[in-house]
Every structure is written in C-alpha cells, then in structure tokens.
Design a protein that fits this description.
This protein has eight helices and 15 strands. It is α/β, with parallel strands linked by helices. A hairpin with a 2-residue loop joins β10 and β11. The structure holds fe (ii) ion. Fe (ii) ion binds next to loops.
Length: 291
C-alpha cells in the first residue's frame, strides 16, 4: 500500500510537520503550536490545519510521532492527543532529556507530569503498528540523545538529523548531543536504498530556492555540504564542532523544552491562575551581586 505524505510548513520556526497516511490510517510527525515569545501568546491555528486535513481526507489519526524533544518550537502533540485521542510517541532517550532539563525549571525529574508525558517510548528496532501503517523505529542519536527516525516503507522521517543538502546537518552541542554519534546516524541513513525519501523536520531555504520537505538518500549522500558519503569522520566532527561553537542558543530553547518534555502540555497554572514559562538565568561577573 503506497504511503501518502502531506507536509505543512510552520514559517515562524521553519518547521515541517508531516501527515503520513495509507488505507485511511494516519500518523502526524512533529506538530507545532503557535507561540509568540514577545507577547506570550500560544495558539493552535497551525495544529488545527493538520486536524482539518485529517478530517477532509477522512483519516484516522493513529499516533502522533515526535522525532525528538525539540528546542526550537513548541509541540502540538498534547493538543492533537486531546482532540483525537491518538497516543504520543517519542524516543526512550527523552528520559535523559527530562532529567537534564527538569531541575533547570525547578521540577522534580520524577514528577508524574514528566513521567507520564508520553504514551509510547520507543527504541531502535521497535515496530509500531499504527492501523495499516507499519513503522520501523531507527535510533538516530547525535543531535539529541532521544532522536529517532520513523521508517515507513521507503520513507524515513529523520527529525533534525539531516537537512536539505545545501543546509547540512543538525547541531550537536545540546546536552546529550554527540558529533560522532551523528556521523554514524547519518551514515546509517545514507546506507538505505538510494530512492528512499528522507522527510525533514526543518528547512531554512536561501533566497531563490523553494523550501524542501524531503530529499532522497542518493541526493543527500552525494550532495550534503557537511557530510556526504565520502566525508571522513574526523573531518566532519572537527567542522561540526567549529560550527557549533559559533551558534547562539535557539531563541525558543527554554520555552520549547519546558513544554516539549511534558509532551506538549503547558506548565501548571500558578497562584492567580496564570501560566508562566521560565528562563533560567546565567548570572555572570558583576551581575552576581544583583540578587
Ligand atoms: Fe531539534
């Protein structure tokens, strides 16, 4: 049964969400909440577009799939779960991401809101049956410890592991990131049959280029500017480390992790009923005396 993929671009964060379906059964990969950091506004317009597509096509949403705990956008997984009842899956490496970030936000890593944030924790080689869809799980560590690829026939949803060939690969400087692991994960993808389609989580197209939701294994292995099939590991690791050293923290790092390690749920309301997202401060130099 042929897999159909419809991709939706969230322009403010450069994120692709994908709806993959066959035989009336669907999964959504990496849905996005709308969030304006300046005003604190959170909305579901983009996620409702996914629901409308599912409804128009007469599809049953069987699972929401997160490729990893994202640091650059807020996940709409919980919203889709509430609206459809579909369970939410992520890599079992989410536990280490939760353990790292929970204390930064003043949360107990054993908090039930974290422990129960996802319905399905997956590891390499697991098979998820989502109605008619048979999904093979590929652990793709490197960008984060919990990064997964979801392989459905000759399609793989690769998260941030790879970008379009002219953009390159994911950064590896987040907690749990590992350049050597990313090198191996990308080689694993590049060793798949050449006509396999790799579906991307982001695109940041330069002026004059159409944005791209996918790339074939053959094209990626031939043309990826950071890691083509003949790039030696040492060269990749050195170049990746040098590039990461100059990258700023993602603008939505703390808002995103605060929501995403909870499966897309917002932090609980505080006294007065208002919800807050926290920014842990890094107090440097003389600022230390300001407390
Ligand atoms: Fe990411």
């Amino acid at each position: 049964m042929a897999l159909a993929v419809q991709s939706f671009f969230h322009a403010p964060t450069g994120t692709w969400s994908h709806v993959a379906h066959a035989g009336g059964d669907a999964v959504v990969v990496d849905p996005v909440l709308d969030f304006d950091a300046a005003s604190g506004r959170i909305g579901t317009d983009s996620a409702r577009v996914l629901l409308e597509y599912l409804s128009q096509q007469g599809l049953r949403l069987r699972h929401v799939l997160e490729t990893h705990a994202h640091a650059d956008h807020l996940s709409a997984a919980a919203f889709l779960r509430i609206r459809t009842g579909a369970p939410v899956a992520i890599g079992s490496g989410i536990r280490s991401v939760q353990a790292h970030f929970a204390p930064l936000f003043g949360w107990d890593p054993g908090d039930a809101a974290l422990h129960d944030a996802f319905d399905t924790l997956l590891g390499d080689g697991d098979v998820l049956q989502a109605g008619a869809l048979r999904i093979e799980v590929m652990a793709l560590p490197g960008h984060t410890a919990d990064s997964l690829g979801y392989r459905i026939g000759d399609n793989v949803f690769v998260g941030d592991t790879l970008f379009a060939p002219d953009i390159g690969t994911a950064r590896c400087d987040f907690p749990g990131g590992d350049c050597q692991a990313l090198y191996r994960s990308i080689h694993r993808l590049h060793s798949l049959p050449g006509d396999t389609l790799l579906w991307l989580c982001h695109d940041y197209p330069p002026a004059g280029r159409e944005r791209r939701a996918s790339v074939s294994v053959a094209e990626s292995a031939r043309d990826n500017r950071m890691l083509a099939a003949d790039t030696p590991e040492e060269a990749f690791v050195a170049a990746r480390r040098a590039r990461d050293a100059g990258l700023p923290a993602p603008q939505l790092l703390y808002p995103a992790l605060q929501v995403n390690i909870r499966g897309g749920r917002l932090p609980p309301a505080e006294a007065g009923g208002r919800r807050y997202l926290r920014t842990p401060l890094r107090v440097e130099g003389d600022a230390d005396g300001l407390g």
